[in-house]
Design goal:
With about 260 residues, this protein is mainly alpha-helical. The chain is about 80% helix and about 0% strand. The chain has one domain.
C-alpha cells in the first residue's frame, strides 16, 4: 500500500504539472517511479496515461489547436523518427542523454533569464522556422525513435512559435497524442510478434485502475490552474520544468 500511494502521488503531481503546462509528466515521473516498478512497465503505463490525458486536454481546447504549427512539428519529427529507430543499438545512450540534459538545462536557464527580464524572442516566420529550429525538431525525431524523449526539443521550438499558453498546451497535446498512439501500436505489435506477450496484461489493467484516478485528479486541477496563471508565470513554469527535466536526465544517465 505505501508503494501504491507513492506511485499515485507521483502520477498525480506530474500530471498536474502537465495539465498546467502541456508537457513534462513522463520525464518527471520516471525517475521517481523507477525504484518501485520496472522502467519498461512504467514507460508503457505512462504512455497509456499520457494518451488519455492528451485526449482530455484536446477535448477541452481543440478549437485553439494551431494546425499549421502541429503539421510543421510532426513533419520534422517524423523525418528523424526512422533514423533513431534504426540507430538505437549504435547510439551511445549514456553520453547522449548527458549531453541532451546539459542542453536542456542551458536552454531552460536562458529562457528563464529572458522571461524574468521580459525579453521576448522573435516570433516571425523566418526566426521560428529557421534551419536551426528545423534541425532541432529533426534531432528530436531521432531521439524519439531511439529513446522516446523528443519532448524537450518540441518544447524549445513551441515556446518560440506558440506564445499563448492555451495554444501552446493544446497543440503540444495533439503532438503527444500522435506520438503516444504510434508508441502504443508499436508496443502492441512488438510484444505480440517478438515476445508472445501483450501490453494489455492483467498487471497493466490493475495498474491503470489504481493510477487513473490520480491522473484524472491531477489533470483536472492542472487544467483549472492553467486558466488562472498569468502568461509570464506560465512561461517561467515551462522553462523551470525544462531545467528540472534536464537535471533528471543527467542524473539518470550518470546513475
Amino acid at each position: 500500500m505505501p508503494v501504491d500511494l507513492i506511485t499515485g502521488f507521483v502520477i498525480f503531481a506530474t500530471h498536474l504539472l502537465e495539465g498546467i503546462t502541456g508537457f513534462g509528466s513522463t520525464v518527471l515521473a520516471l525517475p521517481f517511479l523507477e525504484p518501485f516498478i520496472s522502467i519498461k512497465f512504467a514507460v508503457k503505463l505512462l504512455g497509456i496515461l499520457g494518451f488519455t490525458m492528451s485526449l482530455y486536454l484536446i477535448f477541452r481546447s481543440w478549437r485553439h489547436i494551431v494546425w499549421r504549427e502541429f503539421a510543421f512539428i510532426a513533419l520534422w519529427l517524423t523525418a528523424g523518427l526512422p533514423i533513431g529507430m534504426v540507430c538505437l543499438q549504435y547510439l551511445p545512450e549514456q553520453a547522449l542523454c548527458t549531453a541532451l540534459g546539459l542542453f536542456m538545462v542551458v536552454v531552460g536557464c536562458r529562457g528563464e533569464y529572458n522571461t524574468l527580464k521580459n525579453r521576448l524572442p522573435r516570433t516571425d516566420t523566418t526566426a521560428k522556422r529557421s534551419g536551426w529550429m528545423r534541425l532541432l525538431l529533426f534531432c528530436g525525431g531521432v531521439i524519439q525513435g531511439a529513446f522516446g524523449s523528443a519532448g524537450p526539443f518540441v518544447v524549445i521550438y513551441a515556446a518560440r512559435a506558440l506564445q499563448d499558453k492555451t495554444l501552446f498546451r493544446v497543440t503540444l497535446s495533439l503532438v503527444w497524442l500522435t506520438t503516444n498512439s504510434l508508441r502504443l501500436i508499436t508496443w502492441s505489435v512488438q510484444d505480440l510478434v517478438y515476445h508472445g506477450d501483450n501490453i494489455w496484461t492483467p498487471a497493466m489493467g490493475r495498474a491503470l485502475l489504481w493510477s487513473m484516478p490520480f491522473m484524472i485528479l491531477g489533470v483536472v486541477i492542472g487544467d483549472f490552474l492553467h486558466h488562472r496563471v498569468s502568461q509570464r508565470l506560465f512561461k517561467i513554469g515551462v522553462y523551470a520544468i525544462l531545467v528540472i527535466s534536464g537535471l533528471l536526465m543527467i542524473g539518470n544517465a550518470i546513475g
